[in-house]
């Protein structure tokens, strides 16, 4: 996953990573929000989900201490990272800003 993850975040369009867990109730809420965000930004950005229980080393590498944690990368650089549930408008604006 690490090699594939590096390829994904090295993209020249923004990539929003959703670090989540299947047992996490707020993560389910965030997931439905992200579906709407994806519709809003279309091809302008990618949204990738990473299960922290399946990829604990990846979560640790990026300092994920709670779920959901969202991070935006572009050209391999971490541009923004925050834990907690975020709304559609905030995430849409962030992705458009970095596009």
Automatic annotation (TrEMBL):
Keywords: Disulfide bond, Electron transport, Redox-active center, Transport. It comes from Chryseobacterium daecheongense. GO terms for molecular function: protein-disulfide reductase activity. The record marks 25-26 as: Contributes to redox potential value. The active site is at 24 (nucleophile), 27 (nucleophile). This is Thioredoxin. PROSITE patterns: THIOREDOXIN_2. The record marks 18 as: Deprotonates C-terminal active site Cys. Residues 1-99 form the Thioredoxin domain. One of its GO terms (biological process) is cell redox homeostasis. Disulfide bonds join 24-27. It holds the Pfam family Thioredoxin. One of its GO terms (cellular component) is cytosol. Belongs to the thioredoxin family. CDD domains: TRX_family. It comes from the Bacteria.
